[in-house]
Phenylacetate-coenzyme A ligase PaaK-like adenylate-forming protein
Amino acid sequence: MRRRELTAAGVAWDAWRAVRGGPPAIAARRAARLDAVVRHARRASPFYAEHYRALPDGPVDLVRLPPVRKPGLMARFDDWVTDPAVTRTGVEAFVGDPGRVGEDFLGRYVVFTTSGSTAEPALLVQDPRAVAVMTGLTYARSAGVLPPRLLLRVLARGARQAAVFAPGGHYLSATMFERRLRARPVRRRWARYFSVLDPLPQLVAQLDEFQPVLLGTYASALGVLADEQEAGRLHISPLVISSGGEALTPTVRRRAERVFGAVVVDTYNASEATPLSLPCRRGRMHVNADWFVVEPVDAEGAPVPDGQRSETVLVTNLANHVQPIIRYELGDSVVVGAEPCPCGSPLPTITAEGRTDEILRIPGADDAEVALLPMAVATVVEETPGVRGYQVVQTAPATLALRLDVDPGARRDEVGQRARDRLDEYLRTQGAAPGVAIELADDPPRPHPRSGKLRHVLRSLPPSPLG
């Protein structure tokens, strides 16, 4: 009998029923879906057939499944996926064309690339089942986040939506945003994508003209936009702001709420598993535990008790059957809540460290300070042909050091010069002073010595002589 295709509406209805059924209903769904994805992976993925060959058949014991990591999976990409029509060569050619952002690969699959915060970027293929889960869960479990009165105000003002993220790549935010616009072009009247790479005055002018009611952006960009609003250069009145992609500190959150007079919603997701969590009205993030398994572990891979911070986290995506993600090391440090959320949801809560990249501040051409957003800097460098890994370090007020790993066979000096030229051009568009130097460092990118997580953009300035 042919398996019935999941729909977003069906996922939403089941998600509502799962929460109503409490922890037993969530656990039962999780167990059945885990069994299905593991059985499918063993049968249809040559990588997993080999990876699990020593395991007995029968019910799945999650903790007996050996974890997987991105480098190993990417090295075996064609064996990892379960559809032989999906090849690394084909996917790389697809994502190499920015004009195809939002288009479905082979007319059936949604493809994301990651920014490579722990190693090389990943190529992630989502089947229709996974896309239905993304959409259905978001609708079902985001509907109650906004109070009805606020939701009516959003609708009354036309629900104009601005997304301020990195452009040009097949990233999660850009791909899903453009995919919705392609499906219904009329949405372009009230939904617009803005580039975080644009010079800040240009971005401010664009947002002023558009006057968004809903604003989504990175935490670092939100902090800079709050600076512009408070200084009187930006004049927008969003009702709801969604922050994602980076850690949102309580200080930035409170300041954005005060400056914009908006409700600020934080998100924690991963391109490998989305929506891994969704916020509730109390501002806490709840794991969608009926579709995703989250395992906080220590440096040796042992489970970390609820309420304690993990060294890393293993994630299992129960929705995606074309590219199984099973006990995949995500690299984030997380804390799963030890107590039930006051909102009443039976879904576990989670807090995450997320990205820890920093805003760089350099001298401007007009003697003013120029703020460089970490996601913008990262996008400029990682999109350079030949760059495999990178780190941009501010080593002096007017000096940036560029640490690079390059693709096999590529000449480091040539790749380094291209990256320096692209970064120098970006600095000029941002209004940087001519004397800002970009140096190609001899050493490669340095991961954090304890967590192994790579910070792409950071400051390492000598102490001020004034203390």
About this structure: The first strand starts at residue 110 and ends at 113.
